[in-house]
Amino acid sequence: MGSETLPRYEHWIEGADAAPASGRYLPTEDPFSGRVWASIARGDAEDARRAVESAHRAFTTGPWPRLTASERGRRLWRLGDLIVAHVDHLAEIEQRDNGKLGTEVRAQVRYMGDYFRYYAGLADKIESSVLPTDKPGVFAYTRYEPKGVIAIITPWNSPLTLTSWKLAPALAAGCTAVVKPSEFTSASMIEFARLMEQAGIPAGVVNVVTGLGPEVGEALVTHPAVAHVGFTGGTVAGRRIYELAARGLKTVTLELGGKSPNVVFEDADLEQAVKGTVSGIFAASGQSCQAGSRLLLQSSIHDRFVGMLVDFIASAKLGDPALPDTQIGPISTRPQFDKIMSYIELAKSDGARCVFGGRSRPDLGAGQFVEPTIFVDVRNDMRIAQEEVFGPVLSVIRFDDEEDAIRIANDIEFGLAAAVWTRDLRRAMMMTERLQAGTVWVNNYRATSFTSPFGGYKASGIGRESGSETIKEYLNTKCVWVSSDLDVPNPFIRR
Ligand code: NAD
Question: Is any ligand 1 atom within 6 A of the Cβ of residue 257?
Answer without folding.
Answer: yes
